[in-house]
Design goal:
It is built from 12 helices and no strands. With 289 residues, it is an all-alpha fold.
Length: 289
């Protein structure tokens, strides 16, 4: 992996770790589907403007045969992934969410092998396995009985992660003929369109008058950093690097989220969180080798 991709992915990890905190704060004032919708209502025109400035008008042209692929990307990577993710955080913790969403990593590797014909080295497989064990230790807190306490929020997060894996592989196939910026722009556009009915019928936006600086700040953080900047980093890295190796960086999110959640939300970090986090980092190291 080249140094530029490495820096992009580390920055992305820090931003996405903070997203769980921002969502938790945002949910205190904004319903889940509406939070997801306004996140992309703001980020969509920003990413389109960036794409136009960098790549010109041609990159934003779309023909009839592109409508279905871009609609699928929007539904998978925006509508389904983000609406389910935000809904899940009404029922589970930021730490659990940041861990369980990483169940997408094995699926990314499997989907890449099935649909992109990418091979998995023995070291990459070992890295995935070690990181997976670390994530499991964190979520069950070192006890097998911890599996009995998994709630609906945890299940929703796992399903959201699978949708992200599907988006990542579908996006990589589309990159064979479109740029990462163009793909991100159209994904946001179609995803926002499909989010609108969910958000509108949820509350008809009656909450808007009660939104404070906390809710607004959460939406802006999610829109500009977590969506615009992070999506560009993700798609550009997926274009030049192997999918399985890019996906491994997502295993760092639970560790940094745990620290942020302890400091900002008062969520507890146990010795098992530390042990699991160490295994996650070691797994990333193995996969990078």
């Amino acid at each position: 992996m080249n140094f530029k991709s490495f820096i992009k992915l580390i920055t992305l990890v820090l931003i996405w770790s903070g997203s769980w905190i921002a969502i938790k704060w945002g949910l205190t004032e904004i319903p889940p589907y509406s939070l997801a919708f306004f996140r992309f209502l703001i980020s969509c025109p920003v990413i389109v403007a960036i794409t136009y400035h960098i790549e010109g008008r041609d990159s934003l042209k779309i023909n009839r045969k592109d409508i279905i692929p871009f609609s699928i990307l929007g539904i998978l990577g925006v509508t389904l992934f983000h609406s389910i993710q935000v809904l899940a955080l009404e029922y589970t913790t930021a730490v659990n969410s940041s861990i369980l969403v990483n169940f997408n990593v094995p699926f990314i590797a499997i989907f890449a092998m099935l649909f992109l014909k990418e091979s998995l080295t023995r070291k990459t497989v070992m890295g995935i396995f070690v990181s997976f064990i670390g994530a499991v230790i964190i979520v069950i807190n070192g006890s097998l009985s911890g599996f009995q306490s998994i709630n609906i929020g945890d299940i929703l997060i796992i399903s959201a992660g699978i949708f992200w894996a599907a988006y990542s592989i579908a996006g990589k196939k589309t990159m064979m003929r479109k740029s990462p910026l163009s793909i991100t722009s159209f994904s946001f556009l179609f995803g926002t369109i499909f989010l609108f009915p969910l958000a509108f019928f949820e509350s008809r936006f009656s909450f808007i008058g009660g939104v404070t600086e906390l809710g607004l700040g959460s939406v802006l953080y999610l829109s500009l950093l977590c969506s615009v900047f992070a999506y560009i980093c993700w798609n550009s890295s997926m274009k030049v690097e192997k999918s399985s190796k890019v996906a491994m960086f997502l295993y760092l999110v639970p560790l940094t989220t745990s620290i942020m959640a302890w400091f900002l939300l008062g969520e507890i970090i146990t010795i098992y969180t530390v042990i699991g986090g160490a295994l996650v980092i070691f797994g990333v190291y193995l996969a990078e080798g």
